[in-house]
Amino acid sequence: MTQTISDHRFTTDRERARRTDALRSAMAVNGLDALVIAGRDDIRYRGRVFYLTDYWQLFADSHVVLTHSAGPILIGGTVWGISQARQSDWIAECRLTGTPGAEIAQVLSEQQLSAARIGIVGLDDGGFAYSHYRELIDGLELAEIVDATEIFEQCRQVNSLESLAAMTDTSACWNSIYAELQQYVQPGITEIQLAAQAHRICREHGVRDPLVVLDSTPFTGATSFGTRKVIEQGDVVTVWIESAGPNGTWLEYRRMYSVGPVAPEYRDAWQIYAEAHQAGVAAMTPGSMASEFVEAVANVFRSGGIELDYTDPADKHRSFHLHGIGTDAIQGVWVSGNDRVLLDNEVVNIHPHRLFRTDQETARFGLFGLTDNIQVTTSGGRWMTNDQQLNSAFIEL
Question: Which stretches make up the Creatinase N-terminal domain (predicted)?
């Protein structure tokens, strides 16, 4: 069967114009003659190419060149090829090469930009491979090469009504997945069997490469993809699914189940967790720092005798409690490590990490918690997958 453009269409021409106009305006403000966007098969980078081309590549690397008058021009690699990219009418030209840096230099030379000021998205954060950088500078000896990662991410931080609708659709997809999965959360099934059902249901809902993290009490304390442990009456089961949805926008989401009545220990803990996360989400207004969410959670946890694994927003030796999300799983902002001001209608993903001092604490509460996308609004954050009262986040079966 012949594939058509509509088979690979995710966003509208109007949204394409918004994105390219925003990037070209940012280029002009920052004195850039061209922008080179690097994408790789990494949940932090591959959505960058998708954002500008409407081409969602699962594996390998690819690059896009955008100038003030030309592009986007896609430089595809020989690992994945460009047959799918050619289905996107966002892309002005597709080229296939095993030496992308040299090909980018050739494209820019053809555009009379061999001595221009070129911004590279991914130069300073590992998105642009060093070998490709060497190829590029060898081919553009007179050009000025600068990092443009933050310029790109500032543009991607701004959501339109269409991009918000896409993320809302992804949350609706996840709710359908969990609704279908719930019938399998019962005594006698093994964790790995339940994880297999989650994978199957995700694929049947159009999710291309779901990551399913699954654990049950006593929790292991490490990322678990399901073991042969048999789920029993009284267990708490956590199912965490993260991936890009069918429309290419990302969601990380965790739902917990009590197999039978919720034990008093977990009912009490849930009350503190819910209160803490609601306090954090309430602090997520335009103009606030992203770290205010984390600090609000930490304050409520502290009052309940719970310690968050958090020191300060700049600490680069702690896992993320919050990060930006959209066409990539992690983009723009993360705390700890890269705090910044939140914008109206920005979307971030939250999953605060509790600090465990003993193995016993880990076994009781290791994967107990909340994870969801949050839309920043003037009245505080809005849960995008959970209901606003969090009744769907922890379900008694």
Answer: 19-158
Asked whether the beta carbons of 184 and 219 are under 8 A apart, the reply is no
Whether residues 209 and 148 fall in one domain: no
Using the 3D structure, point to which of 156, 188, 216 is the last residue of a domain: 156
Check if the beta carbon of residue 127 is closer than 8 Å to that of residue 120. no
- The torsion of the CA quartet 8, 10, 11, 16, rounded to 10 degrees, works out to -50
pLDDT tens-digit map of 15-42: 999 999 999 999 999 999 999 999 988 8
| Torsional class of 148: left (φ above 0), alpha (ψ -120 to 50), beta (otherwise) | alpha
Domain with 390 in it: what CATH number? 3.90.230.10
Separation between Cα atoms, residue 80 and residue 172, nearest integer Å: 31
Using one digit for the tens of pLDDT, what is the confidence trace for 297-321? 999 999 999 999 988 888 888 889 9
Mean pLDDT of the chain: 93
- The answer to whether residue 384 scores a pLDDT higher than 90 is yes
Find the domain containing 260 and state its range: 161-396
Domain count, the chain: 2
Q: pTM for this structure? A: 0.94
What is the rounded CA–CA span in Å between residue 373 and residue 266?
24
Sheet (strand 347-350) strand order = 334-335, 322-324, 347-350, 372-375, 382-383
CATH code, 132: 3.40.350.10
